[in-house]
């Protein structure tokens, strides 16, 4: 049996598959690797989980979101449920919670000296991440049909509205004191309006708010609501976020040497902050050869792996 290199002792493996485990198909399951290195932390990141009826079935973010129950809560009234890109299951319920599991296992290993296997299911990850939805059902937040509740576009004070220049403002004036500032900014008289939590009046209130927001540009509304507690902010595009005064002051977005914008690493650690790279993202396969050489593969072995299409090369050409 080949020995696991000392240089990766205690490192974490991530096995990500839609159907079964890629690592185990290569003969590198936890039973094999933990024999070589009992301290190894082996993370299985899968869509439906390592076991169960759907374990070997292909799927994507929308499928995991559907099986978790969360997709049924997402969408407007009288419309089909919709998935918010692939952020919830793939990245949040999958990647983030899998990484958290690895951190937990690393912490536990400082006490036991032993590694372990992590079963990170995207279905269970997004369900757990959405615990608030489950725990708040009896609080009156989610007891109405989809699209008619407080946070799912039912409330007129938790919604997005189109401005006269075709842009949008986001409104999140939940608390009464914030709602009061929203009403004042819209130029309305509180005493002439129904109560904030009058569900039956919400549709008409949304129409009224929409009509008012459509009378001014986004910039004009920002002049009214910036530096207030009305919880009203502009909906910024990717092209606008870096130049927005708040984000610019904090340095929340960075540009690389190709002028491509991306978010600064978060959260920010004050004593040991991350040092972002100003270089462009590497191409897939750009550093394959140098990494394999560093781990002891010969050029002949690398060439054979490339011939068998096990690895990928993508060397950028110089622009002369």
Outline the structure in words:
The chain has helices spanning 22-25, 30-36, 61-68, 87-112, 122-129, 131-135, 176-185, 202-213, 218-225, 245-250, 288-294, 299-307, and strands spanning 12-17, 41-46, 116-121, 158-162, 168-172, 232-234, 253-255, 261-263. The protein is of the alpha/beta class and 320 residues long. Helix 3 crosses helix 4 (87-112) and helix 4 (87-112) crosses helix 5 (122-129). The chain is globular. The model is unreliable at 1-20 (pLDDT under 50).
Residue runs with pLDDT of under 50 for 5 or more positions = 1-20
N-to-C SSE series?
Answer: EHHEHHEHHEEHHHEHEEHH
**Helix-residue proportion:** 25-40%
Q: List how many beta strands DSSP finds.
A: 8
Radius of gyration: 26 Å
Largest sheet: 3 strands, parallel
Q: List the total number of helices.
A: 12
Strand order of the largest sheet: 1-2-3
Amino-to-carboxy terminus distance? 48 Å
Structural class label: alpha/beta
Beta-strand content estimate: 5-15%
Mean residue pLDDT: 89
What general form does the structure show? globular
